Amino acid sequence: MTDLDVWFEWATVSPFWYRRGHAVNGISHIGLNELPLSSAVRAECARLSLWYDTSLNWDYPPDPGPWSDDERTTFDMAVAALVDAARRELGPGFDVRNCQTAGRE
Fold it and tell me: Which domain holds residue 76?
């Protein structure tokens, strides 16, 4: 079983990470080309990555970003749909956990 966490980081297209303690050669981030995902799921990762990049106050990152609560909720729902699609495509050999909202709840 491969344990994966999903969360977006700024300026990173793939939201997939090996779960803590499961890094390969010390690297926890997983590129999209390393997973057997459809082009539709890869495209959705790219779309969500660009969208997530708009959540940061790029002029002064410690300040709050420009997203409203509604936009954050809409984004989180899109990530949940992406995680569901990834689970279906990756199958039972992968445990995929949505960690996008961790630390905000």
Answer: 2-98
